[in-house]
């Protein structure tokens, strides 16, 4: 048999058209999944921040009953980052140890906790009761989320709902409550 007839006539690899089709399919898949992934990530950030706020409030309430001293949980926005601190009411909030929430989370305008000198706060007495009503809530939203029907933001909230210090969490709804708020 001659040497030339043994040449391999098959070619391996992809054609330019096949590679272009793969790139188009990957691009379309990315365009569909990336916005969903970003919305999911924003929602996870909000849930985590909501949990941190809830635990901070419970911590202040627990320390108040344990130490038989009035405790306060304070919230502020510093350089665009929401922060919280649990401290005695005798301690100036600026001297407290502040903890940061996720940088993509912000205090929403639906927040109703009492505000003094730019700091939102609630106090718990030695029995764990709210020391100085009014009661209120912290409402959180993300800076980038566009998933909500109520103004473009997903929302999560933590309520202090009774003077006995009962707390609960809530989330955004499609319809406003009787006060025009979406997070309940």
Write up what this structure looks like.
This protein is an alpha+beta fold and 184 residues long. The protein has one domain: 3-Layer(bab) Sandwich (minor pseudopilin epsh fold), CATH 3.55.40.10. 28% of the residues lie in helices and 26% in strands. It contains one helix and nine strands, in the order αβββββββββ. The strands form two sheets. Strands 3-2-1-6-5 form a five-stranded antiparallel sheet, with helices on one face. The chain starts with 15 loop residues before the first helix and ends in a 13-residue tail after the last strand.
Name its key features.
184 residues, alpha+beta, minor pseudopilin epsh fold, five-stranded antiparallel sheet, four-stranded antiparallel sheet, 1 helix, 9 strands
Number of helices: 1
Can you list the strand order of the major beta sheet? 3-2-1-6-5
CATH topology (level 3) name: minor pseudopilin epsh fold
Q: Largest sheet, described in full?
A: 5 strands, antiparallel
Give the name of the CATH architecture. 3-Layer(bab) Sandwich
Order of helices and strands: HEEEEEEEEE
The tally of strands reads 9
CATH superfamily descriptor:
minor pseudopilin epsh domain
Topology:
Layout: H1 16-67, E1 71-78, E2 81-88, E3 99-100, E4 105-107, E5 115-116, E6 119-124, E7 136-142, E8 155-160, E9 167-171
Antiparallel strand pairs: 1-2, 1-6, 2-3, 4-7, 5-6, 7-8, 8-9
Quick structural summary:
With 184 residues, the protein is an alpha+beta fold.
